[in-house]
Amino acid sequence: MPFAAAVDVVPIDLIPESRRSLLAHLKTAGWTTIPALARALSISTEAVRQQVSQLEKEGWVRSNCGPEERRRTRGRPPVEYCLSPAADDLFIKKYPQLAVEFFDAIEDQAGFLTTLTNERVHRIGSAKNIESIYVEADPYTSIEKSDDGYLLIERNCPYLQFATERPLFCSSTVSVLRRLSGCEVVREKRFQDGDGRCVFHVFTDRPLSARQRKIAFEKEPNRPA
């Protein structure tokens, strides 16, 4: 999946027009007051105040913005509003492309992924917590029993664009699951193959050998035919 296709839709474009216009103006202005917003958007001050108040409650907008020296002036300066970090992420970003560039600049990618795998194993702690392999208490990851073990089903990959470009990264997850479970693990369904999810099959009837248990990281097995 080329990155160019992934940026055709920007999250800000999916927001209702009234909110989108207000957030877009804050993005351009950096920080501004409610009266200034009302003039720029050609709507009433009260309508802007209501929208800003709601957006602030929801965490998209924050107050007391602008240079600190302006907020220290005598008198009571008008409250200025700006986007929160969460709202700023609604606008076009190229984090996956940057991640690929950084990854490609790493000379020892296997060594880097070994370190990453070690850190993830340490963070998760035990097989009892593997549903949190990407995000703590991940609502889009579940575990199902199978005849020969269990399936970890991942319905939302937070690294999908990057992992699609550099699938070696996914081998870290397979290695983490192997080390935590002490069993063979195969990723049987993959986002990259158009399956709409990743399914990691943990074979509890195929325990790792003593030699395999010493392997911190290795490329995941090929997908079963």
Residue windows where pLDDT falls under 50 for at least 5 positions? 1-7
Mean pLDDT: 89
How would you spell out the order of helices and strands?
HHHHEHEHHHEEHHEEH
The helix count comes to 11
Distance between the termini: 22 Å
Number of domains: 2
The rough form would be described as elongated
The counted number of beta strands is: 6
Largest sheet, spatial ordering of strands: 3-4-6-5
Give me the oligomer status.
Answer: single chain
Helix content: 40-55%
Rg (C-alpha, Å): 24 Å
Report the major sheet: 4 strands, antiparallel
Structure, explained:
With 225 residues, the protein is α+β, with helices and mostly antiparallel strands. It has two domains: 3-88, Winged helix-like DNA-binding domain superfamily/Winged helix DNA-binding domain (Arc Repressor Mutant, subunit A, Orthogonal Bundle); 95-213, no CATH class. 42% of the residues lie in helices and 16% in strands. It has a four-stranded antiparallel sheet with strand order 3-4-6-5, covered by helices on one side. It has a two-stranded antiparallel sheet with strand order 1-2. Strand 5 and strand 6 form a beta hairpin. It is elongated, with a radius of gyration of 24 Å. The two termini are 22 Å apart.
Task: Give the helix/strand layout.
Elements: H1 3-6, H2 17-29, H3 34-41, H4 45-57, E1 61-63, H5 68-71, E2 81-83, H6 85-88, H7 95-104, H8 109-124, E3 141-146, E4 149-154, H9 160-165, H10 170-181, E5 183-189, E6 198-207, H11 210-213
Antiparallel strand pairs: 1-2, 3-4, 4-6, 5-6
